[in-house]
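Service request form, structural biology core

Requester: graduate student, group of Dr. S.
Request type: structure prediction, single chain
Budget code: on file
Notes: please return the result as structure tokens.

Sequence provided:
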Amino acid sequence: MSFFAALREDVATARAHDPAARSNAEIFLAYSGLHAVWSYRLAHRLWVRGIRLPARLLSQFTRFLTGIEIHPGATIGRRLFIDHGMGVVIGETAVLGDDVMLYHGVTLGGKGRHGVKPGDKRHPTLEDGVTVGAGAQVLGDIVIGAWSTIGANAVMGKDAPPHSLIIGVPAHIRPLRPETMDAARGVHDWVI
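Core staff response, request fulfilled:
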């Protein structure tokens, strides 16, 4: 995908997810979640080429500007949308599929250093279409199945199958009911 096609896709994704979006120009100029994702893409390119210090410095500068910290070593699919974004943290070994949506205050983090060696996967994997509500903490090398929803302020530390509703502290997993699905987009029609 070309650079400009990716920008257009990101703006369209923001427009689809945010009913408050008034224009493409507003999204392009004022959405810190998009700015953080765009900066991540550049930092990630540097990171995978072994240019680690400049990649980290760029990610920290972006954190200063946007309040969103995305480690350049993370693997992120297409159409990530970070709504509001302040306080979002995405760890180094996190993997995000396509069409993931994160609200403000989300942490995709590790559980600690005990028994962890350099190079180990220690952050979560969010498969395609996962939505994570405001303030949720998703911790450790776990997999959240496709099209699952994690409720606001949930604390999740175990795997969840696809199409799960994950709520509470500690989080409880419940299957999503098919009647809540928006068949056209594969997402659930409710607010977190």
